[in-house]
UniProtKB/TrEMBL annotation, chains A, B, C, D:
Gene that produces this protein: purU
E.C. numbers: 3.5.1.10
Family in the record: Belongs to the PurU family.
HAMAP family: PurU
Record's protein name: Formyltetrahydrofolate deformylase
Keyword terms of this UniProt record: Hydrolase, One-carbon metabolism, Purine biosynthesis
Active site: D233
Top EC class, one word: hydrolase
Amino acid sequence: MAERRARTATLLMHCPDRPGVVAAVTRFLATHGANIVDLDQHVDRAEGVFFMRVRWELEGFALDAEAFEAAFRSGIADHFDAVWQLHHQDRPLRLALFVSKMSHCLYDLLSRWQSGEWRVEIPLIISNHETLRPVAQQFGIPFHCFAISPENKAEQEAAEIELLERHGIDLVVLARYMQIVGPALINAFPQRIINIHHSFLPAFAGARPYHAAHARGVKIIGATSHYVTEDLDAGPIIDQDVTRITHRDSIKALVRKGQDLEKLVLARGVWAHLQRQTLVYRNRTIVFS
Amino acid sequence: MAERRARTATLLMHCPDRPGVVAAVTRFLATHGANIVDLDQHVDRAEGVFFMRVRWELEGFALDAEAFEAAFRSGIADHFDAVWQLHHQDRPLRLALFVSKMSHCLYDLLSRWQSGEWRVEIPLIISNHETLRPVAQQFGIPFHCFAISPENKAEQEAAEIELLERHGIDLVVLARYMQIVGPALINAFPQRIINIHHSFLPAFAGARPYHAAHARGVKIIGATSHYVTEDLDAGPIIDQDVTRITHRDSIKALVRKGQDLEKLVLARGVWAHLQRQTLVYRNRTIVFS
Amino acid sequence: MAERRARTATLLMHCPDRPGVVAAVTRFLATHGANIVDLDQHVDRAEGVFFMRVRWELEGFALDAEAFEAAFRSGIADHFDAVWQLHHQDRPLRLALFVSKMSHCLYDLLSRWQSGEWRVEIPLIISNHETLRPVAQQFGIPFHCFAISPENKAEQEAAEIELLERHGIDLVVLARYMQIVGPALINAFPQRIINIHHSFLPAFAGARPYHAAHARGVKIIGATSHYVTEDLDAGPIIDQDVTRITHRDSIKALVRKGQDLEKLVLARGVWAHLQRQTLVYRNRTIVFS
Amino acid sequence: MAERRARTATLLMHCPDRPGVVAAVTRFLATHGANIVDLDQHVDRAEGVFFMRVRWELEGFALDAEAFEAAFRSGIADHFDAVWQLHHQDRPLRLALFVSKMSHCLYDLLSRWQSGEWRVEIPLIISNHETLRPVAQQFGIPFHCFAISPENKAEQEAAEIELLERHGIDLVVLARYMQIVGPALINAFPQRIINIHHSFLPAFAGARPYHAAHARGVKIIGATSHYVTEDLDAGPIIDQDVTRITHRDSIKALVRKGQDLEKLVLARGVWAHLQRQTLVYRNRTIVFS
């Protein structure tokens, strides 16, 4: 496995579709010494929108982030009316995990971190219950409990936002956090909050999806990871997966089988974000390969 | 492949759960000389209902259908308050296919019949359009066109029912028939009309599910075969399956990928019915293995 | 979720196929007051063998394990020439985990135990390396390191067997244990050692399956959980699953995606064993539903 | 579905990885007026090879095929030492289907053609048996029977090659053709013969894979479409898929379930080729998205 782990930069962009965008961007990069290691481009012809992700090695590249911004803006972005983000993969992203009482996603995420599978930092875990404090302690991560009631919700979320910002959190992961997140928190982390919903959305949005799936008699259940927006369970989907069930499966069995899906689909959604493979356009997520 | 194709009988039953049902039924069968080749039983403990499918060889079995009915009723069914059906697999079932303009499911079903993969008879194809008459002709099957308008719908369906009954149809298969079937036809073939819906129900019920799936930005699409009831797209589900899509897939690509699913899921649903593996209870289908 | 967690007994058996086996067994159980909650039966007609799993509530059942043995042997087993096992689900099974350097399966199994998802006991973890001792410590489980060399292998495994027996281990789980297990250990735990192999067996048996899969250019990779026999990677398969890959996936990416499969397939294999759903016949595993 | 069906050209290429390839190619295309509608690029860093597929609209593009060849060779290919193919999607590809006695893949391919799902021509069907002549006749396609014996094989294949060339065949599809294809035919259609093998290769290569799968007790069966090379069942894989089975499935059931897979996997493999999404490098197939 002689793969180099070179430092790279990733550009995500979209703009109205016009001839010559790929040529212009790749020439811009080549001019400044970039060796492209990945380029994935897509034109949505129905919408007339061009999407691109391009990743290149920083070694030998002439522009630092600031210089890139100036040069790219004037050389490319203004001309093509592009919306873009540049990400330098030179430091681990910082994740905050939100949990309630169920531990399966929490264990899964923490073990990916602790084993080194994911190169991230997890400075804190936030919960609305004390239940999972021992798990946080076992993994040596500070645990903050903010009990939420209708009366104190805005206030508690303000405290959470302050805490998240103080710790320089890049991404919030709702790992079966059983509370609706309020608009202030959502707006503080736009397209930077990922939730796992325990159904195959848009089927069975809202509460108790396994009960609803059982009542409907479906033959397959699913899980969905998505960015959180103010519309409950309606944000841009990142990943989904399913598993087959039968009439033999009680609600309890659905829950058990579903939890394995939830772990997997949440982890894959977070991974795609960490790799900077995701780009939200309207209410859809482009997941570059 | 030295499997015998012995003639068998299949009993499907459900009753309130009580100790001793399996023992009573299997003893009844053994007493009359049955060699059981399959027995699948399930207790839904939440509902308190017992379900069973049992299949035995007719060779050596002492009771014909009529004698069975009398003996089983007094010996077992009355005692356990059971609802039951007996099926003798001694003749091919007779299928009517309903189609509109799309041919992919029709070709798939006809080729399973013509190749001998399915031991069924298909005495007629019914459509609300002339489009697929050439396909019916090519396979040598009578094609009946009943154009449907709001004004003539009840009358046309009455004619269809008459035709279906005259041909001794056992099962109606809606192979992408783009018309809502009326109550008279549904009631004439209770739990004997199977539809394919081109989504993963209950997501995207109703018209244009691929458009809706594209708009929602799902990462997986599906298809569902179900028994038809008066609630549109809400009948008991027999089978479902899914396939992964990406942002690169246009609506046209969803349709193309979805059609392969539809063929498969409809065929599996019909096959389960042909094998007498299905038992509807309330709005769910038990699919015995 | 008002499911009772009643204490139950499970009988697994197989015998030459003859008419009347189900009737005899279920009448035997009914006679002694059993309320059957699950019965799954299968006849392999090519082999002429009858397989059955039946589970009943212990409440109200007249026979304890010893009385059952005597009565079942003389009443049923001798008559039908049956091979059978009776399992009382009245105590948690005791698992020993064998690991080497990779932690993903270990974390997954330990979190299922610690969260209470699985009602088992894990009295010890055995490894041929020190690497994962901190994980064991974090979960509070004794960790025993037995370094293995060609010279000391028989001796070390003898010590392991002694340790396993002293702790009353019911099931050994090889959670990416990168050592071939010797015959003495296999024979001490017949059909009670479950391994996870990181390929879709029988493809890519042996070492470095992800490298082999990459070299062959497959489009799907898999994982297999199986009972360990003296034939390497050739024991009876319990569960398998797969995931789609593309040409973009480096060997490193295959390893990363494969690890998620390994966790899932090992857990499902162990779960099936814990539920007493598995019955090995020749080199195949019947997995009852 | 307002998608235009514009005429497009597709370029497939690979070359040693160097900085600036994408930039050079896209600038070349832009210079000549191309509007790129798809670009998928991949660097295999372990091998040090760059792969690209780019598709652009022919409307407004200044170069015809001949002019492209000259300009691309001198401007790009020679410089980067590239291997490349240009495909103009301006005429339907011409397919020859090879079959033996089983009809399921044949029906599936013919119905995709006849329904207009695939824009291809199928001028002839070749078989080593008379069995499927009626199916060919029903679809109005000339059927040529070449009985093959060890003695006449070379001679018969020479006649087949002559026939294929006379009909301007672009792609040969082995739709469950139960004969090993000889080297002369393979060399006449390099990377233009697609076979469906009824197993999850490399497991169960060779004859009777369903029997072998049953004997091994696998829990999942598969099918594989691949380009044919002189190594039996070892050519570059295009697509694979799998389906879950249980101990209840006899060999006959495996065959039945497997045939649905074979239809699907062969059709997807051929579709990828028709879309010019495939590029063979050594013994692997790059399948661009």
